[in-house]
Amino acid sequence: MLTGPFPYYSIEPIREGPLLVQWMMAFEQIPKKDWYSILGADPSANMSDLKQKYQKLILLYHPDKQSADVPAGTVEECIQKFIEIDQAWKILGNEETKKEYDLQRQEGDLRNTGPVDAQVYLEEMCWNEGDHTFSLSCRCGGKYSVSKDEAEEVTLISCDTCSLIIELLHYG
Ligand SMILES: [Zn+2]
């Protein structure tokens, strides 16, 4: 049954099921996929939109829909895609897991708000006696600002106007 250099990719076992399940379990261990983009959906899409997109894609990439004579690479890609799409729907098609995933996403977004525009030492920022903050002008015209207390712990400061962030360096 398992023949060829990529036994898991061959059509036969996939049709039988168990290997596909193994694959899916393996994929569940891989975090940080963008399930929305896998479904070609916007994170703000509602449940029926998501379902529609899922149903369309899952049919398109279903292993049973692939002809047996496509090049191995293509079959492999289709199966991977199929698994991803299925996994995306498992997460986004359920209110609980969707909520959990959305939260994870938000946290991730904060950590990668955008590219770090510059690395600066606190000493390079302007001290504002008035409100006890350090600040620096952003090239957008906005301002990076951090309070004296926060400056001790904070390493990333986001601009109050655009999505740029700067990294605050501390002397060793
Ligand atoms: Zn800015």
Automatic annotation (TrEMBL):
Keywords: Cytoplasm, Cytoskeleton, Electron transport, Iron, Metal-binding, Transport, Zinc
Single Gene Ontology MF annotation: ATPase activator activity
Pathway where this protein functions: Protein modification; peptidyl-diphthamide biosynthesis
Cross-referenced SMART domains: DnaJ
Domain DPH-type MB: 116-171
Subunit record text: Monomer and homooligomer. Iron binding promotes oligomerization.
Signal peptide: none
Organism: Panthera pardus
Gene3D superfamilies hit by this protein: DnaJ domain (1.10.287.110), DPH Zinc finger (3.10.660.10)
Residues in coiled coil: none
Main location: cytoplasm
Protein name per UniProt: DnaJ homolog subfamily C member 24
PANTHER family according to UniProt: DNAJ HOMOLOG SUBFAMILY C MEMBER 24
Keyword Signal in annotation: no
Residue span(s) of domain J: 34-105
Family: Belongs to the DPH4 family.
Subcellular location, record wording: Cytoplasm, Cytoskeleton
Pfam families to which the protein is assigned, alphabetical: DnaJ (PF00226), Zn_ribbon_CSL (PF05207)
GO cellular component: cytoskeleton
